Amino acid sequence: MEVKLVKENYFRKEDGTFDLEAALLFGGRAAGICYNKEGYESLLKEPIEKTEKRTNMTLNNGHHSVNGHVHIILNLENIPKILAMVLNNEHEYNTSEKSARYTPVEKRTSPVITEKEEELYNKWMNIFNEEITKRYSSVFDSKKINKLAQENARYLVTVFMDTQMIYKTSLRQINYIASFMKKYINECDKTNPFELKLSESMKDFINELDRLNILDERLLRNEKHRDLLLFSKRYDDKREIFGDIYLTKYKSSFACLAQAQRHRTINYEMRIPTNIEFFVPPIIEENKKLVSEWLKDCNSLKDVYPQGMLIDICENGTYENFILKCKERLCSAAQLEIMLQTRETLLKYKEELEKINHPLKDDIIKYTKGARCTFPDFVCLSKCGFSEGIKLTRKI
Which domains does the chain have, with CATH numbers? Predict the structure, then answer.
């Protein structure tokens, strides 16, 4: 066996735009592999007219898989968090995103943020710092406590806040996503503030892709009438099931969903419910006065769609991939809300398997003793020694 790097891996022009013509020709050459006896190298030497003919043929007949060979790496600056979530829900991607865990929220660096959001964010940063220090100062240093305070205070900030992200996907996929967004823009409820605002962000994104010369009309046809995967069309019709495959429905915050999307082998859909509720961080749950104050402050920001707003989630996948999720999220280092939600689904899964006497009932029990470090088939490389974390009883 011999492996070589293909020269046409990158198609960036000197002016910073994408060399779409060269990238499409590469797809045309790749399409010739299936019947060319001499291999790829000979396709580089064929007459350009022949390559162009094959390129146009594949683009026009819908055989777009050859355009999946070319990958594009985008530096997305000031992208709304919710739009990043739309992209991250389409599965075929790699992403590196700025974390609200480590970044303070300030209006001067994020003009989308209102003065009220910044005020309440800072107010609760102080409260969370105090509450975490009271309970966990013997476990965490001040730097860790501040990070956890930031993680919880960001629940008050709009899901339209801007973020930074490096995003990689294929030429085919980015065109498909743009076509799905165009469908969303055309069909969304123009009287719904969330949908209208998101559609405007999508328009900006598509315009930027067009400016960079990334889009081709033949890849944008969406002849199968596909939709963006994030937004549920039949939420009420779906029924929970637990076996070799599973489907479950629950409420979680926008922030929790963003964490869950990292598990790309699992499918997630969402909708915004009519009755608006908010996630209450467990560190303040036992203080009724703080809970009341928290809900009052969250409710005062409901029109900006704060990240702590609870949304309806439909999650489905295979048993094996759910257990892989447990091996990530049942950990003291994981965001608390997704750890709690994953644990809740795990226990529900176990109960349902036992009800129907499913063979997997004897396997799932191995993962219900505590954090992932208690799993018989997981090796922890950085033991925390945090007993509440290992028992999954932590409040932060």
Answer: 7-68 (no CATH), 71-219 (no CATH), 235-272+309-391 (3.30.1360.170)
